[in-house]
Write a structure and sequence with these properties.
The chain is an alpha/beta fold and 534 residues long. 53% of the residues lie in helices and 7% in strands.
Length: 534
């Protein structure tokens, strides 16, 4: 309804700053009204769900990345899919567990036998397999008993434990439904025991997950990151994702500040360090030079933990909230550099301020969304918005071309086109302001011209974190620290397995049984980095 609002045409000679401000105010009010209308529609959808009615269809996601792919590439992919489906048989690689010969009926006399035609039936044996171990017990002359050791896995075998973990952390089955399923199959198990199987004695899994981030940082030229809500014990919290094509790592905390992000990047280290890298950060963040001098000239530069660092700040007289925050960020940056993180590493995000560290690159799809979500008030503004979007898409397509084959001439052209785009002035004042904001982010959006290996968008992190969101919506918040830790650990391991084409079911069976035939995931990350650096 608001997109149909039409303002009278105002000649350029009569336009004054006040007139432009009023037009911008009207546009802002229209956008606010549109957002309120969308919120009302969302509430109506929720009411419809409660009433078991159908919701309105959702808007389709952006096709920006798909539409800028070359048509030839798309045709080639389609052709390959068609050829593959025609020439391959679904069952040719299946393991056959049993073979039965079926006699033909009504065979005429004198017919010649021509062998067999295979007809494969896939089925499942899904039933308990309980074993009674009879433990020998002996009694000596002194009356003491000697009893054989029971199996190491306790009363529940490795396949059952793997099944429980797979159903809960991979299939997102809730604990009550999983308990009901196990009892229906004939298992004798309580709700408390099921919770124990899901959360306790998972130290080896936690260690493998912790090593993922260290390995990923060591071999990656860039990291992608995002966060989402993660309530814990009835309070709001956040889950931060860090990863790329080689690994995925999740960690839930109560904060999503820059201090929190840098602390997570340390991958288990607790120290704070003032070194050259830390001092450069403090100057870049414009910490007063007097405070920097205090930190630089202090005799102590390495602090074992948060308590020691806070005591050092207090001793130096750095007590202001902002000054303490910047100093702490710098010390965390120093710790990361001291433990081997490359100062050239790039962080790719969606423009959330807490991720703006090191060489920061922005997602182009989020940048285009700033233009896409504007609400024009008349045909002229709609046309201006569409023209700007088309220029962005064309620029995006050529950035893809530059990634594939970096060229200095194309680099200069892309830079000039971006600056010309941001300098565009239209009849749509809100659009003009959005273009100004785009120009402020020029260095982060065009960092790919200096580092062509960077991704142009942050879709990977959003796709990886979506599974976490799904789990949160189904199971709600966590109540115990063990529960929160296990949710983060198994989400990390599951997503990393998928990136290396490893079945999560095979991974769980391998680790729970203690066979450890599959290599550690951090080792796979390092191997893959040699083949395809990130």
């Amino acid at each position: 309804m608001y997109k149909d609002i039409k303002l009278p045409e105002i000649p350029e000679a009569e336009r004054r700053p006040l007139v432009d401000q009023l037009i911008g105010l009207i546009q802002a009010l229209a956008e606010t009204a549109q957002r309120q209308a969308e919120e009302i529609a969302q509430l109506k959808d929720e009411i419809a769900v409660l009433k078991k009615q159908k919701k309105r269809p959702k808007l389709r996601p952006s096709k920006m990345d798909e539409e800028t792919d070359a048509a030839g590439d798309q045709d080639q992919k389609t052709s390959k899919r068609g050829t593959s489906s025609q020439t391959s048989k679904k069952t040719k690689d299946l393991k056959i567990h049993e073979t039965q010969v079926v006699k033909a009926e009504g065979v005429p006399e004198g017919a010649a036998f021509k062998g067999y035609q295979d007809f494969v039936v896939q089925d499942l044996q899904f039933q308990p397999n309980n074993t009674c171990y009879r433990l020998e017990q002996w009694v000596g002359a002194d009356g003491k008993y000697v009893i054989a050791d029971p199996p190491a896995n306790g009363h529940y075998g490795p396949t059952l434990v793997s099944f429980v973990l797979h159903q809960y952390y991979h299939q997102h089955v809730t604990q009550p439904l999983l308990l009901e399923q196990l009892k229906a199959l004939g298992f004798k198990i309580s709700a408390g025991t099921l919770n124990t199987l899901l959360t306790e004695d998972k130290a080896l899994f936690h260690q493998e997950k912790a090593a993922l981030l260290e390995a990923g940082k060591a071999v990656s030229r860039y990291l992608q990151t995002d966060d989402t809500g993660a309530r814990h014990q009835g309070k709001n919290g956040y889950c931060t994702y860090i990863g790329n094509d080689l690994f995925a790592w999740f960690e839930s905390t109560s904060s999503k500040s820059r201090i929190n992000f840098l602390s997570l990047l340390r991958a288990g280290h607790d120290d704070y360090v003032i070194n050259a890298g830390a001092l450069d950060y403090l100057r870049h963040q414009r910490l007063p030079s007097a405070k920097i001098d205090l930190l630089e000239t202090a005799s102590e530069t390495v602090f074992a933990n948060h308590t020691a660092w806070q005591a050092h700040l207090a001793a130096l007289g750095i007590r202001g909230k902002r000054h303490k925050a910047i100093a702490t960020e710098g010390a965390l940056m120093g710790s990361l550099l001291a433990h081997g993180l490359s100062p050239e590493i790039a962080i790719v995000s969606d423009d959330a301020g807490q991720f703006n560290v090191f060489h920061h690159a922005l997602c182009w799809i989020h940048a285009e969304r700033l233009i896409h979500r504007l609400i024009p008030l008349n045909d002229e503004q709609r046309q201006a918005q569409q023209q700007v979007r088309e220029q962005i898409w064309a620029l995006y397509a050529d950035l893809k071309r530059y990634k594939a084959a970096p060229d200095q001439g194309l680099k200069d052209e892309l830079l000039a086109r971006f600056e010309a785009l941001c300098a565009t002035r239209t009849c749509f004042e809100t659009l003009n302001q959005a273009l100004k904001r785009l120009h402020k982010n020029q260095s982060e959006l065009l960092l790919i011209l200096e580092k062509p290996w960077l991704p142009l968008h942050n879709n990977l992190s959003e796709n990886d974190i979506r599974d976490y969101v799904k789990k949160r919506k189904i199971s709600g918040s966590t109540r115990s620290e063990l529960g929160r830790q296990c949710r983060d650990t198994f989400a990390s391991l599951k997503k990393t397995c998928r990136k290396h084409a490893i079945s999560f079911w095979d991974f769980l069976q391998d680790r729970v049984s203690g066979k450890n035939a599959l290599p550690p995931l951090p080792e796979l990350v390092r191997r893959a980095a040699h083949v395809s650096p990130q």
